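Lab meeting notes turned into a lecture example. A postdoc, R.K., suggested we walk through two folding results consecutively so the class can see how the record format repeats. The first protein's sequence and structure tokens come next.
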Amino acid sequence: MTQNLTTPSGALSLQLQEAGPVEHQIPIVTTSNLLQFANLQVVPYYALFLDPVRLAEEPSSSALVDERLDYLLSRLDEISRLTKNWDSYASESPTRKAIGISKELLRDLDSIGAIYLPRYVFPLSGGGVQMEWEGLGKFLEIEVSSMGTFSYLFGKGFGASRTFDENNDVAKEKIIDLVAAVVC
């Protein structure tokens, strides 16, 4: 015997079936019904780094994609306000040059596609900025020095077969190519 039940609001429908000779009713719940009942939705991974209050106000995933660049630029603004000794080890404040070059790189990457934006952005002790990307079996860490030059560490593979490539004072175009190699 099958019986359909619906919540008073109509938001969730459950189908109950008798479970053989024991005569207990077992709800059959689909993932979409459960997500709907809990008022949840699937969003991109970087939504975890956005303001949860804004997520509640603006739940569409396309809005999250549009907000990613804004979030990263505001993160760089926060980083730019750090003062000397920000990490309690007498580190220099991030320089205007490092912040400006980092923002320029983010805008260039966003113009290619939001998928190219980094997962993490944080200050470095020498007055620079670091950004990180992760892909399947690949990662990229770039540093924008206090003088505005790019360095990178690129890794790929797993375990004993993992390889690394590292270089200093490279062109922005090389950084963009490496980002593409990680995210695509």
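The second example is placed directly after the first for contrast:
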Amino acid sequence: MSIYNPLYWLSIRPLDVSGNLVWILLGIGILLVVSGFVVPFILKKRFKDSLLRKGFEQIGTALITMGFIGLFIVFCSYERASFLGGKFWYPLWIIGALVWKVYIIHYFYKAVPQKRLLKNSRSVKQEYLPPQKRKKR
């Protein structure tokens, strides 16, 4: 059966991971986990905006999570676990990563500008309001 056939990827039989394929998949998983720790750390130091920092934390969380899930799938495939090592987990993993990527892109391009606009409008209104009085106990 060809890898281009959808029935090949919907099989419960584990993917035959041996030789160089194991090392490539392990390298991808480890690279995702390491970059999940390093990338947000570097970017949070560079940018001081709290909204951008939250977005970089989301990127780090996505990279770490997808890296560990990928390592788990590779391990189960290598050990020939029939259900947990099934070929259908690889496309689901990639689809999950793409959905998470769309969510992060939406945050940076839609939510951050809206939150900045709301923050600026509050600060403009605050200029014309008298300061709040403290309550005495």
